[in-house]
Specification:
455 residues; alpha+beta; 6-stranded mixed sheet; 4-stranded antiparallel sheet; 17 helices; elongated
């Protein structure tokens, strides 16, 4: 093995000389710096693989003699060297090593070189897994492996990246459970809990997909089913009293508020329905349990005002009443604003100044606590303009939304108390965490569960 390592170092020296000549030639020919940079990076990756090869060769093959005793069991050295594939950030290595077992043809019980090198259980290096999963957290699996391939000219398949993600996530709950709550001195005046849901199309495994002789679906048949993914966040923040005019300027005229406080010690959870202890546990319930635990840990004496920010989904408010009963419920303003724009476009063209004025005026009224007047005014407008068909349905839906959520739209009180009125933290988490929209059922669920994917 010493000879192999020396040979590897000679190859490294030759490659360094080649890189030096390339830089000289590029300088003489006036190459663009970006082309030199790309070629240098590719050659340095090859150089790194050579050096990694030299390191492995210097460790030998792990021969520990004809027999070894592991945990009181005597194991024999099996015949020949066994190859192991190791995919590093520099490229692929084939590592040859001695292995031990009870007898030929039986399970390999001990590999000294693997233990000495600290090799992972799979073939992907810890560094490669780290880099790839950092991308997977921020992007879809497809985008992650595509980006890694563009950077390093290698990457596992999308399925391997997803399986790797699930394997690493097994310890996430244990890790989370052992985290200490934030230091009280770093917390804001208010404790805020926010949650949101996003529908995720579920693609069945190939074996479970119906096979047809024609590509068209029947009437009412959809390409896939959806399952709700729920994201929740708990954070603290200082009070920020402001007026209705301040919020309208910020929302409609994009005038960012000065001295706006920032969320502190943000905790985020994302859940889908899965089987736990043999029964289905909805993602919605699990995130509310996590939020309730976090709120109790962060404010055990209940000295802080607890604010719960949600959209209009009734099931979310039911969960909030069960798990966060003392919280002041606030309907997310941006969902309210969406309905206002829908109402405006029933009377004015999209993008018109009249539509913007319509929204600005009624948003001000809502922020001043005049929800009833806004509802009544929209009804009168519908009658005056004799709205029919789709416009009438859309306007009625907006009115119903306000009526159903009226108790959580006391914005004049919320603003005076300095409460946040937008669930941007949870919304942002939904966009980033629930991004891969091509989830296979068998991969999304740790165990099959009928409740998670109804027929």
């Amino acid at each position: 093995m010493i000879v192999s390592q020396e040979r590897a170092f000679l190859n490294v020296q030759a490659r360094l000389e080649k890189i030096r000549r390339f830089v000289e030639q590029a300088a003489d020919s006036g190459e663009r710096i970006d082309r030199v940079e790309r070629e240098l990076f590719a050659q340095l990756l090859e150089l790194g693989l050579m050096l990694l090869r030299a390191f492995v060769d210097g460790q030998g093959d792990g021969d520990s003699g004809a027999k070894v005793a592991i945990d009181g069991v005597e194991l024999r050295r099996l015949s020949g060297l066994r190859e192991r594939r190791y995919l590093s950030v520099f490229g692929e290595l084939a590592i040859m090593r001695r292995v031990y077992g009870t007898r030929e043809g039986q399970k390999i019980e001990h590999v000294p070189l693997d233990a000495r090198l600290g090799l992972p259980a799979g073939e992907f290096s810890y560094v490669l897994m780290d880099w790839l999963q950092r991308l997977c957290v921020k992007e879809s699996f497809h985008e992650a492996v595509t980006d890694l391939r563009a950077l390093l000219n290698l990457a596992p398949s999308e399925r391997a990246a997803e399986q790797m993600n699930q394997h690493l996530a097994r310890d996430a709950e244990i890790f989370q459970a052992h985290q200490s709550p934030p230091e009280p001195a770093t917390e804001g005046e208010l404790l805020v809990a926010a949650a949101d849901g996003k529908g995720v199309p579920m693609r069945r495994p190939l074996a479970e997909r119906p096979h047809r002789s024609h590509p068209r679906r029947g009437k009412g048949e959809k390409a896939n089913k959806k399952q709700m993914a729920y994201v929740a966040a708990v954070y603290s923040i200082n009070r920020f009293p402001r007026s209705a005019a301040d919020v309208v300027d910020e929302v409609c005229r994009k005038q960012r508020a000065e001295h706006r406080p920032t969320p502190q010690n943000k905790q985020v959870w994302a859940e889908m329905t899965r089987c736990l202890d043999g029964s289905g546990a909805t993602g919605r319930e699990r995130v509310f349990v996590e939020m309730a635990i976090a709120c109790k840990d962060r404010d055990p004496e209940r000295h802080k005002t607890l604010v719960c920010l949600l959209d209009g989904e009734r099931s979310l408010w039911q969960m909030a009443g069960e798990w966060l009963p003392r919280a002041a419920g606030v309907l997310d303003l941006f969902h309210v604003l969406e309905r206002l724009w829908t109402a405006a476009h029933c009377f004015h063209a999209e993008g018109s100044p009249e539509a913007a004025t319509f929204v600005s005026h009624r948003l001000t009224m809502l922020l001043e606590g005049k929800v009833g007047r806004v509802i009544g005014g929209l009804r009168r407008l519908a009658t005056r303009h004799a709205l029919k068909g789709d416009k009438r349905r859309r306007l009625n839906a907006a009115i119903t939304y306000y009526e159903n959520n009226r108790e959580h739209m006391q914005y004049d009180e919320y603003l005076a108390a300095g409460y946040p009125i937008g669930s941007g933290v949870a919304e942002g988490a939904c966009r980033h965490l629930v991004k891969d929209r091509r989830i296979v059922r068998s991969m999304a669920l740790q165990q099959p569960c009928p409740e998670a994917f109804p027929s």
